[in-house]
Description:
The protein has strands spanning 2-4, 16-21, 27-28, 33-34, 36-41, 48-51, 65-70, 73-78, 88-93. It has a single domain, classed as Immunoglobulin-like (Sandwich). The chain contains no helices and nine strands. This is Ig-like domain-containing protein.
Amino acid sequence: MTQDPEYVSVSPGDTVTISCTSSESLFHPSVNYHTLNWYQQKPGKPPKLIIRKVSERPSGIPEKFQGSGATTKFTLTIKGFTEEDAADYYCQQWRSRPLTQ
């Protein structure tokens, strides 16, 4: 899994886009969806699932976090960035083992 950019500098209110590319398709025919998740991790905290199956937000995750993409190319968009959103963000695939991020 390759993420781009590695680092990003933002101002409050910005829209931030992070891309994630896989070397193989993440579509899993047996479950009929793409096996791509996004996590947010703040210092000293465990990773928090913010997007699953490319674009689904778990309960309690604000709409400002949006996921999109298909096959090998995926995007996380954060709209109206605030100081609270400052964190590390990781994509993670579970199409094949080992799981990678």
